[in-house]
Amino acid sequence: MSVKGLLNVARTFLFLALETFVRPRWAYYRTRAFYYRYYKNRFHKNRVAEYQSNIEAIDAAIALITNSTAEEVAEFGRSEILEKMRVHEEWVVAISDEDSDGDNEGPIEFFYGPSPQLMRAVHIVCRLLKPEVVIETGVAKGFTSAAMLDALERNGMGELYSIEMPSLYIGYTRQVGEKIPQSLRTRWHLELGPSAIVLPRLLKKLGSVDVFLYDSASSYDNQLGDLCTILASMRPGGVLISNLLITDAFIEATESFSCKWIAVEQTKPTPIGLIAKLD
């Protein structure tokens, strides 16, 4: 490991130790996510080949999951916010809009933005379903948040509830959601903390959810827990979209409920999963 890498590891352990005293429950879930991501995930990858055998083109997958026509999907795919995306290699790095904040520096630059395929999927699904309640875990600079909020605004209904677990980098929290245009923020609600803590509390208040995006920790237990928690509260006909299909968590969640699912290739190495709750 390089000197820079060793310094980053040392800094992470230092900040994690400090967090243990200030917010012990946050530190517990963060440590658990690290443990799964860097060690335990490898024991939960027995069925990942099934994702590739259930791949569909993105527009066809959206039509199938939402029971929509190809024409409807194509219509809502013609969106200004999608056309304004600036893409670098495999991820979105900017949305051209004068009323969004922030620059291209700071700690969130250590973490890549969404793929253009994920942006397209969340926007079109929200336009088609006209949801009242949308929840996402994982915000970063807010590109997917902006895509969903734009859809809700065009629908004239719906609220987005975002959950973000801030990283240990100093200044991260200040950048969360900074790329969401000011004109779209009236429908946006942000809560910070581990989704295992925030999500059940939020669902207790909201009652049910229509659309959910999982784009947070790539750890098996966190993903499985969040997906099962959401599917238990999702109304029939609701849609769950999950990034990071690198373990069996997505498949196992679908088998615990009455669902249909499909996978979509993206420019990032792992596919996106879409689930429709049947009943």
Structure write-up:
- The chain has helices at 3-22, 24-38, 49-52, 58-66, 70-77, 80-83, 116-129, 143-155, 172-175, 195-206, 220-233, 249-255, and strands at residues 55-56, 85-88, 91-95, 133-137, 159-164, 188-192, 209-214, 234-242, 259-264, 272-277.
- The protein has 279 residues and is an alpha/beta fold.
- It has a single domain (47-277), classed as 3-Layer(aba) Sandwich (Rossmann fold), CATH 3.40.50.150.
- The longest helix has 20 residues, at 3-22.
- The radius of gyration is 18 Å and the shape is globular.
What labels describe this entry?
two-stranded antiparallel sheet; 10 strands; Rossmann fold; 279 residues; alpha/beta
Topology diagram in text:
Elements: H1 3-22, H2 24-38, H3 49-52, E1 55-56, H4 58-66, H5 70-77, H6 80-83, E2 85-88, E3 91-95, H7 116-129, E4 133-137, H8 143-155, E5 159-164, H9 172-175, E6 188-192, H10 195-206, E7 209-214, H11 220-233, E8 234-242, H12 249-255, E9 259-264, E10 272-277
Parallel strand pairs: 1-9, 4-5, 4-7, 5-6, 7-8
Antiparallel strand pairs: 2-3, 8-10, 9-10
Helix pairs in contact: 1-2, 4-5, 4-7, 5-7, 7-8, 10-11, 11-12
Q: What Rg do the Cα atoms give?
A: 18 Å
> Can you identify the CATH class?
Alpha Beta
CATH superfamily: Vaccinia Virus protein VP39
The secondary-structure element order is HHHEHHHEEHEHEHEHEHEHEE
| Total domain count | 1
Within the largest sheet, what's the order of strands? 1-9-10-8-7-4-5-6
Number of helical regions: 12
User: How many distinct beta strands?
Assistant: 10
CATH fold call: Rossmann fold
